[in-house]
Specification:
By secondary structure, the chain is of the alpha+beta class. The chain is built from nine helices and five strands. Helix 1 crosses helix 3.
Length: 280
């Protein structure tokens, strides 16, 4: 009897970028801390109710579940402790749903100042939600842990010249146009291309890691490393409606080449060049 051989099928991994493997959004001006605050608000569930006063709806949100979950819980475990209300107009909703109901974005004929003021109100509500005194203060430690886990390892910070998360990298002072002009007579074409590549890489490093935090989340890279070690063939497909694709492709390319600042084998960091190769 012939021995049955089970061949591994090639995996095709589709990743929607924003809020999946990318924890910031440059096009919307959202940094990692902003996005973590938003995720916490979308994952906290409570009772959302409304009452009418002078024909105007007033919204109230009360925490009804003691843990964060991206999907609405079937039976919020704190619901029984909530006080009874007379309003029949209520449902279980996330804190982000409450913000959208009570303070929706202004997209009508309002002035730019009014729209900006509303956005500022929404941002402050998201930022304060898990802080002391906020309705989600019990999630403060979780939010802080998320941000800590997204911080670059010490070895990467040392290499990038980052001494403090709040300070970030040194201001970019490199001028590729000036260097190109000064060296145009003495450099050959290959040298010019190499200098231009290095200048581009320097600008990208400053752009992606200036916060002192990961751009693409580390679990994404570790998943790929695990699959490669298991000799599992795979392809990666990135999808987005945003404007971050070029940044993601640049970082992914650096990772596959063993040149990623967090996976380059220097300063005590893991090396992946022997695990992954470009073209996977």
């Amino acid at each position: 009897m012939a021995q049955a051989v089970t061949a591994k099928r090639r995996l095709v991994l589709h990743f929607d970028i924003n809020n999946t493997i990318l924890m910031n959004d440059h096009s919307k001006g959202l940094n990692t801390v902003d996005n973590v605050a938003r995720i916490v608000c979308k994952s906290a569930w409570g009772r959302l109710s409304s009452t009418k006063v002078d024909n105007e709806k007033h919204w109230v949100w009360e925490l009804a579940h003691d843990s964060l979950t991206f999907c609405k819980p079937e039976s919020p475990n704190m619901a029984a402790n909530l006080p009874q209300i007379e309003s029949q107009d209520w449902s279980y909703a996330s804190y982000m749903d409450y913000i959208d109901a009570a303070y929706p974005e202004l997209k009508g004929s309002e002035t730019d100042a009014q729209k900006a003021d509303r956005l500022d109100t929404r941002d402050k509500m998201k930022a304060k939600f898990s802080q002391p005194g906020g309705q989600g203060s019990k999630f403060k430690n979780t939010a802080e842990k998320l941000i800590k886990n997204l911080s670059l390892p010490k070895g990467a910070k040392d290499e990038l010249g980052i001494t403090d998360d709040t300070m970030g990298m040194e201001p970019e002072t490199y001028s590729p146009e000036k260097q190109a002009h000064e060296g145009e007579e003495s450099e050959d074409e290959e040298t010019k291309k190499e200098n231009a590549r290095k200048a581009h890489d320097k600008r990208m490093l400053h752009k992606l890691y200036n916060e002192g935090r990961y751009h693409l989340i580390p679990s994404f890279f570790r998943t790929l490393m695990f699959l490669k070690k298991q000799k599992q063939e795979f392809s990666v497909v990135f999808r987005t409606f945003g404007q971050d694709l070029k940044n993601v492709v640049w970082e992914f390319d650096k990772f596959t080449r063993g040149e990623h600042p967090c996976f380059n084998g220097r300063n005590g960091l893991p090396i992946v060049k022997e695990v992954l190769n470009n073209g996977t």
